[in-house]
Amino acid sequence: MPFQNAPASLASALAARGYDSATPVQAAVLAPEAEERDLLVSARTGSGKTVAFGLAMANTLLDDNGRCPPAGAPLALVIAPTRELALQVRNELEWLYGQTGARIVSCVGGMEPRKEARALSAGCHIVVGTPGRLCDHLSRGQLVLSNLRVVVLDEADEMLDLGFRDELETLLKAMPDTRRTLLFSATIARDIASLARRYQNDALRIDTQTGSAPHTDISYRAILTDQSDMAGAIVNVLRLMESPSAIVFCHTREAVRQLQAILTERGFSSVAISGDLGQNERSRAIESLRHGQARVCVATDVAARGIDIPDLGLVIHASLPSNPATLLHRSGRTGRAGRKGTCVLLVPPARRRLAERLLEGAKVEAEWSGAPTPEAIATADTERLLASSALNTPVPEAGDTRELINKLTESHAPEQLAAALISLWQNSLPAPVSVRVLSPGSVKKMPRERSRDGEERGERSRGPREAGSWFRLSVGREDRADPKWLVPMLCRLGGIKKQDIGAIRIQPDHTLVEIAQDKAERFQACAAATDPDEITVEPAAAPRQGGGYKGKPGGAGGAGAGKRPPRKGGGGAGGPFKGPSSRKRKEF
């Protein structure tokens, strides 16, 4: 039996779900040496890690009969970086623990907090939630962690990148020291290792990525294309590859809106998923993908977390990932369960060197080419038509269809019928776009900078004299502005990381924030795509005593420890912020 070490109630649920073998990470957490241990697990997207940590915490929660005790204060807490991922985890645990009597409650942003509070008060065994909403319930006394036996940090690297360190530490400090801590992360970087050392006890290290090797079922292609042809290249890639479903990643919400509008106009059934959507809109978009009503999902990286798209065969990076781990994480959404998948990077010539470094860092090899041409798409269309199973449809002996066949064959020549069939079929497909084809061999690589001794080097490291771009926030000392909540708010809503924030100057009625020069445009675009509320952001002149960008926030980072100004409508920490819409960046 593949899950012989799992409780019988969970093994039965897995068998009913069609699981006939354990993935490497699932087998590792069921090994005898992992029982009742803290775990530090490195596992990529698509590795079956949700089921893995469900199995890992089972013996801690269930009695000898494979049942949960009477419901009261939660025994297990699963923390995920985004609402979508948390809801997906809850759904997975519900069927996995379906025979145990477990009551599972989710606590995520965008949902009615009073309904969550009632569910917590009624008693539960497992709580799944996002850091901010969990801290809100904890501060109100609605989430009681005194009985907690096990906590799971899912995608811990993403939570730290999004600025949730203080929320995580607030939650971890409120738990009993005797609880188990299971930390799952795509990568074990320095900050993850630091978190593990601080909050885990003699953790067993599990690495199922074999040196961070990429999925063997995913093929990579890098396509050189001018920035002006980016949308056309995406159209042609979608047409050439004809995947049942595809996801296209963009950096900003505005880029998502623009591209989704273009694809819809060209005839693709597509949906956009970004932070602009309310929960009901987001749920409808996801359902349309799962039920096959939409074929293409255009999304920002953060908003796409936790979205499980069936039969996803194609991942397109319209904007290059920020690092190799993100490249592998995005791409890992395809090539699952033994199926093949394709990952396509669209690379402007000026960013070819960056793309090569990403691929090298991710340890993957990509086939370089120019954008698909209408001629290549026409050839692929012909091959697909000739191989279509519809051409083997049995001819009925009688009935309305047979009668129609007789009328058509009596009044039209075979060539006319074939021409009509081809015309109807071609008109049902989105038309390809004429784009400039760049040959990888004819495009010169951008030269690397050289140090004084002539050695090649990568991107220039930032020093203390490098000036950043300054922005003005509409909150200040009078509004209890504090770096402890400003920093994570800027990270989450501005699409940047903590190290991209320089000096923070808090004035009586406003705050000046320095953003790394190479991230300022993205920050401004994300800010401009956010709905206006109490806090606004706009470009500002550097203060007279500007200290230059150093890559460190000007105050203590994190959230949850400082006082926040009043919020409306449950926005992000400190409320949403917005920049002038006239300054939005156009990516396509």
CATH-derived topology of the largest domain: Rossmann fold
Per the principal axes of the C-alpha atoms, what is the gross shape? globular
Give the mean pLDDT.
81
Tell me the number of structural domains. Answer: 3
Instruction: List unreliable stretches of 5+ residues.
Output: 446-465, 546-588
The neighbouring-strand order within the major sheet is 3-4-2-5-6-1-7
Number of helices: 20
Radius of gyration based on Cα positions: 26 Å
> What oligomeric arrangement do these chains adopt?
single chain
Q: How many beta strands in the DSSP annotation?
A: 18
CATH architecture of the largest domain: 3-Layer(aba) Sandwich
The structural class is alpha/beta
Strand content: 15-25%
Q: What top-tier CATH class of the largest domain fits best?
A: Alpha Beta
The end-to-end span amounts to: 52 Å
Q: Portion of residues in helices?
A: 25-40%
Main sheet summary: 7 strands, parallel
Mind telling me the CATH superfamily name of the largest domain? P-loop containing nucleotide triphosphate hydrolases
Organism: Acetobacter senegalensis
GO molecular function: ATP binding; hydrolase activity; nucleic acid binding; RNA helicase activity
Biased composition (Basic and acidic residues): 446-465
Pfam families: DbpA (PF03880), DEAD (PF00270), Helicase_C (PF00271)
